[in-house]
Amino acid sequence: MNIDDEKILYNCYKKLEKKYSAKSHRMALSKDKAQAAGIAGKLSLMLMRLTSPDIELSNVEIQKYVIAVKGMFTQYSVIKGRNSSCINEAMANSMDELIRAVCKYEADMVSMLRMQETGGKRIDILSIFNQKKYLNQLGNSLARTIITEAIHGAATPMGVQPTYFITDTGMRYHRESCPYCKGKHLAAATLKMVENQRLKPCKCLSKPLIFDKVDYTCVTAFIDESIHPVAWDVEGNHGKAGSYSYILCWGNLTNESQITAGRIIAQGVDYSGEHEHIERISEAAIGKVLISLVYDYEFTGQVHIYTDNQRAANHWRDVAKNSKLAKHFLWVEVNYIPREFNKMADRLGRSRMLLDLPANTYQELVKNNTFQLAVE
Checking DSSP bridges between strand 331-336 and strand 302-307, what pairing results, if any? Predict the structure, then answer.
């Protein structure tokens, strides 16, 4: 498996080299020669570090050098594409040897990941890196990190599918209390893991799942965001207002119908200074949830957050504050949820919006028959 992973990773780097070489940014030949000379000067030292049997490296050092090589490789490929005369045969051979060494180390990391993951031997890294998103990340991130994101990073849209459980070697996915898996260890899995391993549903899933136990090691948050087309300030003046509502619940919920009074930790509505970009309101809502859990409830376990803003779900970690807050928790996932499966948080936001309306604004909305517009 390790050898196969090496081959797959090497072919991915060759694809990246072709992509980087096609970049059309112009650069003076003299500058590219200087940069190429700098890369050539580092090649021999990096080759010695990563290929010499006499040098023992710690895991931290390996990761540091592998990331450094990725940067060199990107720069090398760009120069090769726009001023190929700067790259001689010896340099090309050395870079190829260095990339093969990187692939070996990264394949070893992937092997360790396979040992740690349920059903890890069946992780299909070829299908992962065939996706443009993950292939591009390989140019600056560890393959192991990318694969982990691919199999864990996107959970099932709420209300569409149940939570999945799988065995180490089986070819089906199950419910947690599957009557056909007595004596077997079932581990929780995401939809991505099920898809990656091409598993089929067990017949135990023909019956509805029952959620009656509250898991206090995990919190699920439903958030809804809005920019009101008819808005006001505290004095009733027209304008725009951004807001978000949130419902925090104990447990790893997979459907808003599982929200009960006994599970709810807190719920509320806050207004945002953002009046134009809905994804920024979503990002503010994610930050609010994380801050509240850490500082109000001293919770640092697993957190699952669901938003109906796809862009915010994909890029929430790009917000520095949210990325820093996430480090306080054992695990944080932010996933997309279709609006039709997030009605409770939506209703909470609309109700609060009406409660905050000044009396004169409310009367004007009713009089002008714009009440429905105000709450949508």
Answer: parallel
Angle formed by the axes of helices 2-21 and 59-82, to 10°? 40
- What tens digit of pLDDT does each residue of 104-141 get? 999 999 998 888 777 788 888 998 999 888 999 999 88
Element (H, E) at 157: none
The whole domain housing 164 covers 153-206
Beta bridge partners of 200: 172
3-state secondary structure of 172: strand
25: enclosing H helix or E strand: none
Residue that is last in its domain, among 131, 150, 169: 150
176 and 144 both lie in a single domain? no
Over residues 238-262, mean pLDDT: 80
Same-domain status, 195 and 112? no
What is the distance between the alpha carbons of residues 322 and 320, in angstroms, rounded to a whole number? 6
Closest CA relative to residue 143, chosen from 105, 191, 116, 193: 105
User: Please, which residues bridge with residue 224 across strands?
Assistant: 245
Which ranges constitute the DSSP H helices of the chain? Answer: 2-21, 29-51, 59-82, 89-116, 125-129, 132-137, 143-152, 191-196, 278-291, 310-315, 320-326, 343-355, 359-367, 371-375
Q: Please check whether residues 145 and 160 belong to one and the same domain.
A: no
* Same domain assignment for residues 31 and 42: yes
Query: Does residue 309 sit in helix, strand or coil?
Result: coil
Q: 218 and 342 in contact (C-beta within 8 Å)?
A: no
What is the DSSP secondary structure assignment for residue 168, as one 8-state letter? Answer: S
Q: Does the pLDDT value for residue 363 go beyond 90?
A: no
- Write down which residue in 206, 227, 247 finishes a domain: 206
In a domain, 321, yes or no: yes
**Together in a domain, 78 and 191:** no
∠ CA 44-46-49 to the nearest 5 degrees? Answer: 110
Q: What is the CATH number of the domain that holds 242?
A: 3.30.420.10
